[in-house]
């Protein structure tokens, strides 16, 4: 108690935990736009089981369908050695942890998918023939462009979100991978509707107030490049730029913890085919996946809607961060690190 | 800039000002429940001009109508010497500023109203016959109870708010006074729809993040009591309890200012008969009033709906307060005041 009187962030996290549910709300039919807006106002996630079951994508897509639809297409594939695209990663032969961006290359879609399928049943250590982790994860509104031939299988927007937020999605993204890829804990300034099509996605969710517990550090950027021998090498970006990134992994909570990590309550939810997840703006999420039983691939679609920057949410995040920054600066000063 | 890097509250207020409008949004017809919910989500006030013009209360109420309807009623009247019910007030013969509660007494409604009317055109100093300020302002769901005979003149709830918030009002309150009463700056944990019926109300509004600028102090409670001679005397409460109350008055901004008051941007709006004001939860408001031209009385109704405590708003307020408390404690310590 004494601790919290003197510690605004501990008080905040305790208050948040008292007033907000520790588990996700489950719906069995889509909310109305008004019901959705209540969740947006509360910045509270929910899952809708089976909401997309009737979509053509959920009814008809499988590996054979996708290969046929995109038989002549080349697609952008993110390639990494460990499924660690956009994740904190040790830079070999240094003490640095860097933000590792994937090697990106165009691959014929059918052979990309066959590779995912063949690899999906393999376990680590992977054989040399399938040692690369590949993931179609361009988050640039790829569905109506790169994957335009598939776009008619899903609605162009989610009606309850489009009506509630009074806007079209800023991006609609298709994700195709297998269980070897994990998306590291991060957050986006978007309201996000995530729709599972094949396989499962396993989300770990943390609210925006968790920022002092996720141990964000400024990481130098690096990108995997394919060497002349075809091997992946992680190369530091030349621009020297740094990105803030969460070092804490809620699945390994002892490592990289801050004094506040123990006050953060992760919410876990698994999406099955046809499920929707409302992932509210600025929520941290770590995402792992399981390929569907028959074919080993995991396919999902998400709709990003611009978030509202007026009102309490963004200001809360701003204040949490500046309070935590000030606290860290003072602790460093007291430690003589200045 | 340097100032703000080290000052999370200054950063917060600057960010808030950059992202939120400095003036109130004006609508000319009622919002839909969904449109209203977008304002609730943004915790942003608006006014709807003329929305209640068709109400029976706005069409038919005047002094004569009210006196006839309540000709046999006694009503609870708040009585003070300066129109300072529930306001910070110097306690005579001491150095104390106290939270002054009004003397409350039952008065026959017609004579209460006649007193308001006769007094309305008088200026300070008031003559002995009209030196008391009287205000019918019981905020205890008085319309369906104390004023049940008037309740059918207004709807039992505001449809867009009832539907959006999925609840009935927690209280519906009638306010009858004249220009000599002012409600001091304060806030309520309610979503509030305020409806003007006769005369004008003049609101000064500050968002919840303004709390470090309003200079809240713990004030001992006191209440006006009518002496044997009929005079009003302010008597300290015996229980010794204290209430936190804003000392800063946005209309006298130099006095009682904190280092953050200058970063607070008050929003001013005047309600005319038939206007709605959405006063979002936790917004500070100071309210003064002008009697209607013919009859000198000011009549309004407000609907209080329970606010949502989950989500970002309440947590933002909690954090702002605890950061400001900690800062003040540290400043006192540095000043050797400890």
Automatic annotation (TrEMBL), chains A, B:
InterPro entries: Cupin_8, JmjC_dom, RmlC-like_jellyroll. Pfam families: Cupin_8 (PF13621). Residues 139-320 form the JmjC domain. Gene3D superfamilies: Jelly Rolls. It comes from the Eukaryota. This is JmjC domain-containing protein. It comes from Coniochaeta pulveracea.
